UniProtKB/TrEMBL annotation:
Pfam families tied to this protein: Aminotran_5
SUPFAM superfamilies xrefs: PLP-dependent transferases (SSF53383)
Domain Aminotransferase class V: 13-364
Name used for this protein in its record: Class V aminotransferase
Signal peptide bounds: none
Sample GO molecular function, one term: transaminase activity
Length: 375
């Protein structure tokens, strides 16, 4: 039986939240209502849209435990926010940035593109030390300006100890940047406990939002270090005073929002977050981990399948990777897709990423479908 908050069709087992999640019922309803309102009244209710935007900022503040809504900018996606940091910081030749060799391209390309300014991008092999955190620390030296890492690795499910990394960065005066797209909406997150300087994530994965609307958290001292790379009316301190000359830049993270908001996306993401916050992130995290633990147990017990997910960290995520003993990933992936299991091919295997609403029975059914394939 499907969860009451979702209308996913019965012939699908949806295990792809680490890629793009389905919308909850209320999100679809919010988008339909917005479309109807817009088509009948245009922007007549613009002030309500501004209120919805403020509500979304408040929800995001709660989700990441930010000290203030002013620390959060609404951005297009993770990549845009990473680029704000990469192109905002005043680099000097010889500086280096420490990261891992498991990052999604967005958390690599922005930094590698600084090579022409003499900035080195160092990629730790996270399995090369006793802990993945120590593998990162081993690459740090007196020229390290920033450490950037995915909170949970997209192709292994490895979850980093952000508190430990944040404490290390603080001790050595290094900026700490977190690509949190595989965490937000799946597990609890606390920018203050992690001493994070910059955090970014798009809303379309575990947060159940639409593509193209994400958040960029920047701590006040850290955001003041960033040179602005985009300009427009929306970043003014006195946003709606269009005649003001000269103008002042917004003191908050809103300075990174140069133009009109993604109002449709804001209505959708706010509806999705209302579900997560209503259930509570503590409960969501425990259910996500219960499901990934269950998946790991069922996969490990199956003679035909091999569990690949990184087991080194004590911290758990919603991502589980496995492969078949004798069947190629491409064939197994096709078989699963054809049988209604929505998943991805990542990290040398098949990636299952269940969310809190998936039933244990459907998760087991997906594993049985993977194991039953016989050539
Ligand atoms: C770790 C990570 N970062 C970033 C992204 C996507 O970035 P964007 O929000 O810019 O599309 C993904 C998508 O798979 C991801 O897994």
């Amino acid at each position: 039986m499907k969860h009451a908050d979702f209308t996913l069709t019965d012939d699908l087992i949806y295990l792809n939240h680490a890629a793009v999640a389905p919308w909850p019922k209320r999100t679809a309803a919010a988008v339909i209502a917005f479309a109807e309102q817009n088509s009948r009244y245009g922007s007549h209710f613009y002030l309500d849209w501004i209120k919805k935007e403020a509500e979304l900022r408040q929800q995001l503040k709660v989700l990441i435990n930010a000290p203030s809504v002013d620390d959060i900018a609404l951005v297009k996606n993770t990549s845009e926010a990473l680029s704000f940091v990469a192109y905002g910081l005043p680099w000097q030749e010889g500086d280096n940035i420490v990261s891992s060799n498991e990052e999604f391209p967005s958390n690599r390309l922005a930094w590698q593109s600084l090579a022409n300014q003499g900035v080195e991008f160092r990629q730790a092999d996270l399995s090369s030390s006793k802990t993945p955190e120590e593998a990162l620390f081993a690459l740090v030296d007196s020229h390290t300006r920033l450490l950037t890492i995915s909170s949970i690795q997209f192709a292994s499910g490895l979850r980093l100890d952000l508190e430990r990394i944040g404490a290390f960065c603080k001790k050595y005066g290094i900026l700490f940047c977190i690509d949190a797209i595989q965490s937000l909406g799946a597990v609890q997150f606390d920018v203050q406990a992690y001493n994070a300087d910059f955090v970014m994530a798009d809303g379309h994965k575990w947060m159940f939002g639409p593509e193209g609307l994400g958040l960029f958290y920047a701590k006040p001292e850290a955001r003041d270090k960033l040179k602005l790379t985009q300009y427009g009316w929306h970043m003014m301190k006195d946003t709606h005073n269009y005649e003001n000359l000269p103008w002042e830049v917004h003191p908050g993270a809103r300075r990174f929002e140069c133009g009109s908001s993604n109002t449709l996306g804001i209505h959708a993401l706010s509806a999705s977050l209302s579900l997560l916050l209503e259930v509570g992130m503590e409960i969501i995290e425990s259910r996500v981990i219960e499901r990934s633990d269950y998946l790991k147990a069922v996969i490990s017990a199956n003679q035909q399948l091999i569990l690949l997910s990184n087991q080194k960290s004590q911290l758990k995520s919603g991502i589980v990777i496995f492969k078949h003993k004798s069947i190629a990933n491409e064939i197994l992936y096709q078989h699963l897709q054809q049988n209604g299991v929505v998943c991805a091919m990542r990290g040398g295997g098949i990636r299952f990423s269940p969310h809190f609403y998936n039933s244990l029975a459907e998760i087991e059914r997906a594993v049985v479908l993977a194991a039953e394939l016989d050539l």
